[in-house]
Write a structure and sequence with these properties.
- The structure holds two protein chains of two kinds.
- Chain A has 13 helices and two strands.
- Chain A is mainly alpha-helical.
- Chain A has a single domain, classed as ABC transporter involved in vitamin B12 uptake, BtuC (Orthogonal Bundle), CATH 1.10.3470.
- The longest helix of chain A is centred in the first third of the chain and has 26 residues.
- Chain A is globular, with a radius of gyration of 20 Å.
- Chain A starts with 16 loop residues before the first helix and ends with a helix.
- The relative contact order of chain A is 0.19.
- Chain B is α/β, with parallel strands linked by helices.
- Helix content of chain B is 33%, strand content 25%.
- The longest helix of chain B has 16 residues.
- Chain B is globular, with a radius of gyration of 24 Å.
- The interface between A and B is large, with 35 and 47 residues.
């Protein structure tokens, strides 16, 4: 017998509610600072400006993807197709980015439009077709990967224009462009979620779909919106990646969606929907980033890194549950 | 060891941050008796029951079971000792059979490999269900059953656990009158076997019908315990609320205005050829048994249910309502019978729930005006007397009555002219009930048109200007306020 919904869901700890609440709200930040302190002690190369910028640049792609999927997860959905969309949009954008052909605007537009189109297809099948998001996006994961291979004939698309390569490799005011893009995405998406009607509806749909509908919200269009944002941002991430490695790689981005979902979950967003914050996701991505970086600096093999990363993901959620 | 009581709770106290939920409460439960516990929501009943069921530990006080001191740290322990609970909202395993549900966690197994002995399990389950007078195949899946039948399965489960005390939390809130009679029969039967029932309910007539002993709680304190014969309804209500309530209905004679809503030949999956009008300033009661189609009718007017055929007119103009969004646009509001499903986003704050349907009005250009939203929410909290620590409190932490008020606030903010109240007082304490009645009357006096669906006939009779009786998806009678009596309504509802 299940007594779950009789128990008070948020019973504050009895002796010191303020500390418990504080930890609940800022636990993920505290964990992040803690990891940084540990790594600073363990290796002198960690806390340097150069290394910090590198970490930020490394996480910007995962960060952009994670923010996109945060929208979907808050609304109660899931998107597994992100990694393949990164590959497809990267290859497609790169195909239009050879020097002296289409300039900069066309490849960017192609990449973003493909992302938005895939999001629209995912969203429509999920809402109108009433197929589970897990299945639709799992199918799309394979389809997009296949399309990336078909479009590129299975070969990397290289010889890209300097202006295109500037997106991933260039700097503005000494700050790498990917970091600036990541920053802009953080800012805009935080504003959408907190200060717009649509953002509020995303929470309502994830919190209780029926009540959202009965409150006059067009639930389908909100869901569609989240999938479009998510795949659109995956398109942006695909462009940044192709530009950074100066090739459109049809095999790029494998399992990127899992890192993105991990960042969301570490950031305190519940997979059951209805709650979560962009800032949490950003810190989640940062945690994954500094751990990857720190383990590299400590010369721990990438094989063992995977084990450690997995433990941290589960540990973070466990900690969150305890609170 | 031959104690005159089964369970004795002494000086139980329990505090949550900022609230003393229980303050030195005493309770003695005797075998073979129905002991009703009554009090407004927030009086401490649920906290006390959670302690008796091992879901919470008391801060102070002790529990004696047949004279022995016990300390329940888990639900399993409470059940093993002899206390079971039938929850208001049943929590079955819908895909499993009746027998599997009854013996969940307690399956008869073969001695060698621990395989479940299905044959024996089904046989025992059938015996139990027969004993309760239920005529169902025990291999039927739970999801096929009515709520009343599921409840019987829960009772069968309690009996199979050899419970000596069964706590029933508002067991009749979702039952039809006929099903209630069956349940009461079973309770009598259980009493004969020496089983004690702790009965929680807000329904006065039931309480006087079924109880032997009654305990009143208020604000976490034990107010009184007495035999049911020593008390009358008026006295009881005054003990519950701590003040005298003369009449909870004060509907004035009204002269309804012009017709605002009319439906013509409305047909859906569970109702057909429904015709009626509602006038401004009028409260139209809709009575009928659960499952008669009354909820489906109003849900279809609100766009939650499919309309197969028929027309809806508002102010004489034909309108198409395909979704709640259309309904809201046409100034229709719904206070749903299922507030957790259709009413609230439970994990969200009071403020966000109140503003959910009118965010359009809290906007400066593209962005939300959070200050305006705050003011609007606070104004509603004051106006409807919603008891919450702040507008940022999660709705989940509020009592049923206050949750219901939030839904009403939402509807009012939408400027609805036609408001449908479907079982507006189900599971709500008497204080909040009378506030909701007052509010409904006031809304009608302001010229709003109200539709009231209720299983509680005194509510229908006390508030409605006219009553429609629904049976098997059709209107069987239309009664004026003067003609309508409980007997007449039931006659048409049951036929």
């Amino acid at each position: 017998m299940n007594f779950k919904n009789l128990l008070p869901t948020r019973l504050p700890a009895e002796n010191s509610p303020s500390i418990a609440m504080y930890f609940k709200q800022y636990g993920i930040f505290i964990a992040f600072v803690f990891i940084c302190i540990l790594l600073t002690i363990a290796t002198p190369n960690f806390l340097t400006l150069q290394n910090m910028v590198m970490v930020l640049r490394q996480i910007s792609i995962n960060g952009i993807l994670a923010i996109g999927v945060t929208f979907v997860i808050i609304s109660g959905g899931i998107d597994l197709s992100l990694g393949s969309v990164v590959a497809l949009t990267g290859v497609a954008a790169a195909s239009f980015a050879h020097p002296g052909t289409h300039g900069l605007f066309v490849p960017l537009l192609v990449g973003l439009l493909i992302g938005v189109t895939i999001g629209t297809i995912n969203g429509l099948i999920i809402t109108k077709g009433k197929v589970a998001a897990f299945i639709v996006t799992l199918g799309m994961m394979t389809i997009a990967r296949g399309l990336a291979l078909v479009v590129s004939d299975g070969r990397p698309v290289s010889n890209l224009s300097d202006s295109f390569n500037f997106i991933g490799g260039g700097e503005f005011l000494n700050i790498p462009i990917p970091i600036l893009l990541f920053g802009a995405v953080i800012l805009i998406s935080s504003i959408i979620l907190k200060y717009t009607k649509t953002g509020r509806y995303v929470y309502a749909v994830g919190g209780n779909e029926n009540a959202a509908k009965a409150s006059g919200i067009n639930v389908n269009s909100i869901k569609l919106f989240t999938y479009i944002i998510c795949s659109g941002l995956a398109g942006l991430a695909g462009i940044v990646l192709a530009s950074r490695i100066t090739t459109g790689q049809p095999n790029a981005g494998v399992a990127y969606e899992l890192d993105a979902i991990a960042a969301v979950v570490i950031g305190g967003t519940s997979l059951s929907g209805g709650s979560g914050k962009i800032i949490g996701t950003v810190v989640g991505a940062l945690i994954i980033g500094v751990i990857n970086n720190g383990l590299d600096l400590l010369n721990i093999t990438s094989y063992s890194q995977q084990i450690i990363k997995g433990l941290i993901i589960v540990g973070a959620v466990l900690l969150d549950r305890k609170n | 060891m031959n104690q005159p009581y089964l369970l004795k709770a002494e000086n139980i106290s329990k505090s949550f941050p900022g609230v003393k939920a229980l303050d030195k409460v005493n309770l003695t439960i005797e075998g073979g008796k129905v002991h009703t516990i009554i009090g407004e929501n927030g009086a401490g009943k649920s906290t006390l029951m959670k302690i008796l069921m091992g879901m919470l530990l008391p801060d102070e006080g002790e529990i004696l079971y047949k004279g022995e001191k016990v300390k329940f740290t888990s639900v399993q322990e409470a059940i093993k000792t002899g206390v079971s609970m039938i929850h208001q909202e049943l929590l079955p395993f819908p895909e499993l059979s009746i027998a599997e549900n009854i013996f969940m966690g307690n399956e008869p197994t073969s001695r060698i490999l621990g395989w479940i002995n299905k044959k024996e399990m089904n046989k025992n389950a059938a015996l139990l269900m027969n004993k309760l007078g239920a005529n169902v195949e025990v291999t039927t899946a739970m999801k096929e059953l009515s709520i009343a039948e599921m409840q019987m399965v829960e009772i069968a489960k309690a009996i199979s656990n050899q419970s000596e005390i069964i706590i029933m939390d508002e067991p009749t809130s979702a039952l039809s009158n006929r099903e209630i009679d069956i349940l009461f029969g079973i309770i009598e039967e259980l009493k004969q076997q020496g089983i004690a029932i702790i009965y929680i309910s807000h329904k006065m007539d039931e309480i006087f019908k079924i109880s032997d002993t009654i305990t009143v709680m208020r604000d976490g304190k034990h107010i009184t315990t007495c035999e049911i014969t020593e008390i009358d309804q008026k006295k009881l209500i005054s003990l519950i609320v701590g003040r005298e309530i003369n009449s909870i209905f004060d509907k004035k004679e009204t002269t309804p205005g012009e017709v605002i809503l009319s439906v013509s030949e409305l047909t859906g999956l569970k109702f057909k050829d429904i015709n009626f009008n509602v006038r401004k300033g009028e409260i139209l009661g809709i009575a009928g048994l659960m499952g008669s189609g009354r909820t489906e009718i109003v849900n279809s007017i609100y766009g939650l249910e499919e309309i197969v055929k028929g027309t809806i007119f508002i102010n004489g103009k034909k309108v198409k309502i395909r979704s709640p969004k259309d309904a809201i646009k046409n100034s229709i509001g719904l206070v749903s019978e299922d507030r957790k499903k259709y009413g609230l986003v439970l994990g969200s704050s009071v403020k966000h729930n109140i503003s959910l349907s009118i965010l359009e009005k809290c906007k400066n250009g593209l962005f939300l005006n959070l200050k305006k939203e705050n003011e609007m929410a606070d104004a509603q909290i004051n106006k409807l007397n919603i008891k919450t620590t702040s507008s940022d409190q999660l709705v989940n932490n509020l009592s049923g009555g206050n949750q219901q008020k939030i839904i009403i606030a939402k509807v009012l903010l939408n400027d609805a002219d036609i408001i449908i109240f479907d079982e507006p007082t189900r599971g709500i304490d008497i204080g909040a009930k009378s506030e909701i009645y007052k509010l409904m009357t006031q809304l009608a006096n302001e010229g709003k048109a109200l539709i009231l669906i209720s299983s509680e006939l005194p509510e229908i009779l006390g508030l409605s200007d006219r009553v429609l009786v629904i049976r098997e998806g059709e209107i069987r009678a239309e009664l004026s306020q003067v003609e309508a009596t409980q007997e007449l309504i039931m006659k048409h509802a049951m036929a």
